[in-house]
Sequence to fold (427 residues):
Amino acid sequence: MTAQMPPPPALGCRASPVLKQRGQREVFCGLTGIIWLHRKIQDAFFLVVGSRTCAHLLQSAAGVMIFAEPRFGTAILEESDLAGLNDAHTELDRTVEQLLARRPDIRQLFLVGSCPSEVIKLDLSRAAERLTQTYAPKVRVLEYSGSGIETTFTQGEDACLASMVPVLPSTEARELMVVGALPDVVEDQMLALLDDLGVGPVRVLPARNIESDTAVGSNTVFALTQPFLGDTHAALERRGARHIAAPFPFGEEGTTAWLAAIAREFGVTEEQFAKATDAPRRRARQAIAQAAAPLADKSVFFFPDSQLEIPLARFLTCECGMTPLEVGSPYIHDALHGPDLDLLPQGPQISEGQDVDLQLDRCREARPDLTVCGLGLANPLEAEGLSTKWAIELVFTPVHFYEQAGDLASLFARPLRRKSILGVAAE
Fold:
């Protein structure tokens, strides 16, 4: 299998100095994770305990059609709740009772904290324990924080999955657990690849429903598909599971390295690995070559947003021929991001955290061909003549594994193609 992978660069970025700044940040709310989680966990309901602003955020961001009945909602904190004139726990109990009576299909209920509920110190952990006693075993009630006060938006998923780990059943079986919410079609592709390698049994977190066989124990090994799952990583290790460190499965090289790390763990032969991966690798390389033509020899600058920045910079550098100038990430976790940093050639400034004004100054001075940033910065930078890519789009779009590799390159190429077309039209 090692022969299937190109050698890493002589000098990667893992030991490079990291610029750490703390100041004003440009972030999105952690409640956003509900938008993809409620589609993934099909017997769950996400009840946000928050304000009308929280409700408007979810409704507008999700784009829910008026005749649809989504698996999320908001228990709105009114002024009397915030002022302490009502017993918030009594109000919450009544809301949950009404919800479960109306939606008997709910098997998992997540109480999701928000900025307002955290400001008034509403103890959702105690509420979850009380409601679990009331509604178990039919409904499992868990809680996590989706507040954006101290976190970035993808940590909503991390907090959700971390809340599930302590209640997973125990097992002594040697199993692979794949961790991270993926679109169903991408998850099915991944499971087919692992099956072709002869790796199994394979469990998934989050599972599509509570009836799954997902369990954890000292013989469990787990691989992450998302680079923002630091708390979930820690929670699984506390349950005795062991992490398979690997680059994340973005692009052909990243997917091959991710699969190779799992294959080594399970003793897959070189011949079996080649048989399972040669055809999809070839398709991925062809798709990337076609989609990434506008990216060759172009520069890219990453603002910290989703924690996908480091593996995406590796993909753009090693597989698309781009030159990263700065790769910023809200948090850098060596156990998670280290393998991708090993493959990222030295050169870019690696930064953790953000002082947005200082970083904007560096970006304006560098004048990159492409800037990957949050929604709040994209339009102002576009007005200054910089091409941008919304970081959040890379979370909502299927981009993992071989069959999506060309689509991933296309997402970055699209702004440069658009600028080229507009430039020709202007002439």
